[in-house]
Structure to design on (216 residues):
């Protein structure tokens, strides 16, 4: 015999809301725990990284921050700000003849510069501002070396937010979520690539520069 239930249907809406609320709470707790672990891991790893790269770890400005790495690396002055404004900076010893940016900084071609093609559609699209000094006369080999170095950086990390190459420096602005700290392994991987790029920019600029003897 088949039974038949004639009672009123129960409102089970609260049971649907409860798991969602619990999931939200659990998700927030897990995210907070991951942030704390990540910050703690960075605090342990950066002193080791400083020794490995031969850089100085400056004291952090605020409690819970990591501090800054500064010094010479592969012939260039470098700065790593892992949490204050997450970025890696490599400074040129002599002025660069390039102005490349993955974002729009110049509305028009700056005075003394000309539009520069990097020879690859992907790079020309990625670098919204692409300019070189008017005396810049790169050959195909130099452009190939430059584009190879640029692609190595673009392909190396998903945390790249902005890449700038101007007369003074290369600045790699990074974003790895919250907390916005650059993981030490990323610094160890990116810094040699940025230094290699700085070397290519230096070579290209020095070979294109006009010496005083050539202007007389």
């Amino acid at each position: 015999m088949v039974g038949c239930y004639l009672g009123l249907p129960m409102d089970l809406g609260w049971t649907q809301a409860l798991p969602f609320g619990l999931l939200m709470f659990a998700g927030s707790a897990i995210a907070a725990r991951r942030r704390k672990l990540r910050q703690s891991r960075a605090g342990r790893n950066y002193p080791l990284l400083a020794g490995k790269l031969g850089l100085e770890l400056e004291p952090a400005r605020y409690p819970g921050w990591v501090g800054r790495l500064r010094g010479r690396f592969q012939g260039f002055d470098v700065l790593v700000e892992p949490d204050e404004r997450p970025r890696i900076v490599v400074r040129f010893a002599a002025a660069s003849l390039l102005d490349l940016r993955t974002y729009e900084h110049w509305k028009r071609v700056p005075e003394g510069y000309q539009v520069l093609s990097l020879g690859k559609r992907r790079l020309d699209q990625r670098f919204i501002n692409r300019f070189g000094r008017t005396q810049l006369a790169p050959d195909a080999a130099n452009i190939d070396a430059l584009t190879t170095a640029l692609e190595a950086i673009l392909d190396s990390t998903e945390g790249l937010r902005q890449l700038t190459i101007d007369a003074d420096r290369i600045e790699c602005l990074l974003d790895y979520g919250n907390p916005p700290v650059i993981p030490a392994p990323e610094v160890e991987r990116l810094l040699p690539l940025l230094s290699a790029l700085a070397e290519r920019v230096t070579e290209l600029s020095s070979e294109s520069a006009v010496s005083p003897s050539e202007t007389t």
